[in-house]
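Q: Could you fold this chain for me?
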Amino acid sequence: MSFGDPNNPYGAPQGQQQGYGYPQGQQQPGYGYPAAPPVQQPYGAGAPMTTMPGNVNTARVLLWVIVGLQVIGVAIFAIGAAAIDKVKKDNSIPALSNYPVGVLWAFAVLALVWLVWAAVLASKFTTGGNGLRVTTLVFGIITAVLALYPFTIAGIIHLVLGILIACFVGGANGKAWFNRPRY
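A: Sure. Below is the predicted structure, expressed as structure tokens.
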């Protein structure tokens, strides 16, 4: 059997003659799978983001909600500490004479520090970079973890707010917003 026969299907491939088939470098249309559309960036390729994405803006609003809750908490702890201190001095309620007022003042200071931290984070969302994103993520996670211990109504609210803040800032839109080019 010889491979020289042009009609032999098992023969060596024959070169294309000039004028037959398709020109070099082009493919026949209609065969195989269609080409995939180009991959797009969340807000266009290279286009600067001018408006904050909705879920990132929601995370900022939730930080301001935490600020409001912390104002209420600072007031409750401070008023409670002052009232118990007054009762201890008057010795009008003996059951409260051994209550540690310093613990309530410590809680008031901790709530005030948390208030300031949340306010600083929320106010920097328009200008902050990836470091602010990571700090806000840490803030949300710590808020959620600290809310687990007392597990009161305020604890449940802080738990939900902390989880939502961490999810919204840690998502793709949060990453795109905080890593956007600033011109």
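A (continued): The chain is about 55% helix and 0% strand.
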